[in-house]
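Checklist before submission:
- one chain only
- standard amino acids only
- sequence pasted in full

Submission:
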Amino acid sequence: MKHVGVHNDRKVTVMFRQVPDEPNNCLVVYTESLPDDTMKAVQECLATTDAQNSNSFADAAMRFKTVTGEGLLNTIHVGNLMKKVPTSEVFLTPNDATKVSLAEVNTAIGDAPVTAPAQTSAPAGTPGALSDEQIAASLRSQAATMQKEAERLLAEAEELHPLPKRGRGRPPKAETTETASV
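Returned file contents:
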């Protein structure tokens, strides 16, 4: 399995094989020290064909959604779970019998430029992508539909059990005998 290895005898998932402008460092997460839900999400993401076909696990993690609906890469980043370590100290273990230095893998792959994951938002003019104007119109239409449904539900509730009518203003102050005799 790609993107898994060890660092100082601890299991890691290699998020980025190299740090931009620091080719001798990489970013990893210590898999076993992750929170349970995040560890499960990392393992599920690693098992996908998307992750196995990606050169960087971060690309697949960015597209993978956790149980909360948040991107896995964002969850790991916000949780401050990635650690920068030297590539020479990380050994990839694609199977139990193989152990290869990440520095050697990076050298063998070559000096391909390392970049951050691409943004998922579609650029303007992309076929099939909605513009801000189209999204706003859709939201307004949904809000109008919901408003009509809310009015209908309120009317139905009023028919089933009307609220008591309220009188206008404050009730008049009752006179006491003491104030009347003065």
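Reviewer check: The chain has two domains: 4-109, 130-160.
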